[in-house]
Amino acid sequence: MTVVDGVGVDTAAVDATISAMERGDAVIVQGGSSPGGKMEWTRRRLAAFNSELFYEERPRSRAGLEKQEIRSTSRVSGAGLRYLPVEHAGNQNCAKEEAEAVRLLVSEILDTGRTWIDREGVQRPIELDDILIVAPYNAQVFEVQELIPGAHVGTVDKFQGQEAPIVIYSMTTSSHSDAPRGMEFLYSANRLNVATSRAKCVCVIVASPRLFEAECRTPRQMQLANAFCRYVEMAIELPPL
């Protein structure tokens, strides 16, 4: 069970619906407004990212999940969705700029006072093993591995069924027109869903801002881009280091 800002997401249900998303059968739904104060609104909107955009159901709150959070003086703290924009151009399946940004972010997390509080309220230090780094292409995986030896880095297939307090997803490609396998692969709902649902506390997307300016010419392309644009809308943008 994974939490996004205090509300649980069933990762077993995530795995069971991945094939449907890849076929395009899953429905992407715009979430409506929710009652209550600002904090409740924020929690519901963040937690609803998986349940409302990928499934036709609302997330269910579970006792204790609201306790899970990252306590740190770094840019990564609290719980929920984060977005780190990194400017670059002409990159297809490898982005040194993003790999370096990920390295700096991981170093910042590990070098500052940081702890993770689990669903039982137990507090412990965050180690490198508590961070999963996802990339769409093997070339980017190798680039990050070179910069962060010993880190858990891989494509989506490697991390299905796994969870971690922090997940970092490096999207790598500079723009939709640079995508070597087209929008269907780069904007895969499967990959985005795995990345966000595997994070127990915080998910960080590291990406070129131009990826969220895709020119969509078909309803399918609009569906693919919508999930990523929705993520950025819900996420807290992190400042550059």
From TrEMBL:
GO terms for molecular function: 5'-3' DNA helicase activity; ATP binding; hydrolase activity. Keywords: ATP-binding, Helicase, Hydrolase, Nucleotide-binding. Pfam families: AAA_12. The keyword Nucleotide-binding applies. Gene3D superfamilies: P-loop containing nucleotide triphosphate hydrolases. The keyword Membrane does not apply. This is DNA2/NAM7 helicase-like C-terminal domain-containing protein. It comes from Bradyrhizobium neotropicale.
